[in-house]
Every structure is written in structure tokens, then in C-alpha cells.
Amino acid sequence: MGLLGLCLAPSTLVGLYASGHVGERVRSEATEHLLDVSAQIAGMLDVGMHERWRDMTLVASMINAQGSLDRADDLRDQFETLKRNVPIYAWIGAAETDGRVVASSQRLLEGADVSARPWFRAGTQAPFAGDLHEALLLARTLPPNPNGEPLRFVDIAMPLVRKDGVPLGVLGAHLSWSWANEVAGSVLGRSGGGKPDMDAFVLSREGVVLMGPQDLQGRKLELASVRAGVQGVAKSVQEVWPDGRTYFTAVSPTRGEGDYRGLGWVVLVRRDADATLADVSALQHRILFASLAAALAALMAGWVWAGRLSRPMQALAGAARRLSQGDLATPVPPTRAFAEATSLSASLVRLSMTLDAQRTPAATVEKPVSASREPAAP
Fold first, then answer.
1. Is position 378 within any domain?
2. Contact call for residues 306 and 18 (beta carbons, < 8 A)
């Protein structure tokens, strides 16, 4: 048991060191992966908003070139074409300077007064992107969400101005917030995520949950990761959430794209730490088991090889012992196990022959015959 422990101890220590190193590496890669996923989602949200911003800029440019909002049918056709090609548009419309909608997709809200809406007021001054909000006027006309959540939109508005600088009104659009969920879902799917213990969030510039689990929507998250994100810092940490559970969390701020300056959204991705650590623990156990198995296999191989080496030597040692006791008839076992054993066997054979020769008379000595005395003559 002492020899076994002596042989297994180094392998166990190496296995423990390797499993610990691998565990730390897996934790690091897990947080890096989350940070990469959050950055991808943030980038795709910026690109998507920039494309919609560009759409509205081009449409506004065409209306400004026409110089009036009188051709309502033509405007409506443009809006319908854009909405058909880009389904995330829930509504596109043009309102005159008094806030009356003169043309819109599907004729929704035509004739309605939108002068009190934030997007209209802001759009009379400059290009505008509005943060997420629930539908008010459109809630009565659009079909409800299949998942039962309230309709929520992001607004884009562009001022309409003639070439001579005379205001024409405002071009506005409501973007369905469902596209953000689709963006997050596509990134999680490509990244091997989409697991029950992996969630994606979109937070406002104040840290309020705009997209995420329903029980957290509308709540402000007071977390170190969120504070870093709203300050424009990408970060990954392990932290305890309000539900008392520990998560690996990564945040990436959106930064805008081109002339779209962004809305200060923060993308957060989290994964349950217990699930990640369970994977690490399983990997560590496999490494330790593999180290012990390799040590045992090496020990068994060494034991077999040692037996092959020791058996010829033991036989030769027995023969040498019997020769030393005077048993010259002892046969010396021949062996070709390895060079040293072969040489020792040959030496013992020569020693046996030498001892045998020394104990045998060199020559046979005949006993002398006495001369017979002849009788005296009478």
C-alpha cells in the first residue's frame, strides 16, 4: 500500500493542479463567451436601428423634394411598400404641422391628431429616435401580441421641410419591439445558447429592463454590471441577483451606428453560475479520474515489466547460491531476457566448470608394483 500510495500521489497532485487550472480556464471562457454574445446583440441592435433611421431619412428626403403632403395616395403606397419589405414597421405615417395625420400605412390613424405625441413634437425640431413605450393610439387598432404582452414600440421621426425652409410636418414610424427579441434569439441560437439558464436583456440608459423575463420587465436593476454598462463600459462579472441566485453576467452598451447616435441601451446576458460550475466540476472529476487511471495503468505495466526482469535474476541468484554451497551439479538456467542476465548466466556456467575442474584430479596416478624376490640357488 505504501508503494501504491507513493506511485499515485504524484499523479493525484498533477491531476488536482490540472483540474483546478482547467476549471479556472472554463470559468474565464464562460464569462468571455457571455461578453461576446452581449456585444453581438448590442451590435445587431445598433445596425438594425441605423438601417431604419436610414429608411426614414430617404423617405423624408423624397417628400421634401416633392414639397407637399397633398399626394396622400402616393405617400401611402410608399409607406405600404416599406412596411411590406421590413415587417418590423408597425406603423408609418406623415402628419402636417398641426399634427393631423394625412397618410399612413393601412390608413391607420389617418385624420387623427398626434400633435401631443412625443415623437411628433421632437420631430418638428430635428431627427428623433424615441425609447421604448407602450402603444396608446395604435393599441385599439393593431392586433394584440400572441404572447399576451402589451404592444410596445420604438419611434423614429424626421422633420419634413420644403426646399425653401417652410415646414411641411413630420414623418413618423413605430418599430415593433418584437424585433429585439428576434435579434437576441438569433444570436443566442448561433452561440449555442438558448438554454433555460441563459437569458438576454435589453436595459434602458437608466438600467430599467426593457426586454427580459416578464417578472423583471420594467424594473431597475441595481447591479455592478448594470452600473458599468450604463456608464458605457463592457464588463463580465459573477454576481448575486435580486432572486438570491448567483449568475455569470456580461454587459455591452450600444453605441449607435453612423449618424444614428443610439438610445443608450445596454445589452446584458447572464447564465446561472450553478450550471456553469456544475460543468466545471464534472470536467475536473473527469481529469482527476483520468490521471488516477493513467497512474494505475502505468503502475500495472511497471509491475509486469519488473516481473519479467526479476524472474531471470532470481533464478540465477538461486543457482549461484547452490554453487556456493558446493552443489556443482546445479544447472545454470540459460536466459536471454536482457544483456546483463545473459552475461551473468554465462559467467556462472564458466564458474561452475572451473570449480568442477578444480575438484577433479589432473591425472590418474598408478600404484607401483613390488619386484618379486627370486629364490636363492640351492
1. no
2. no
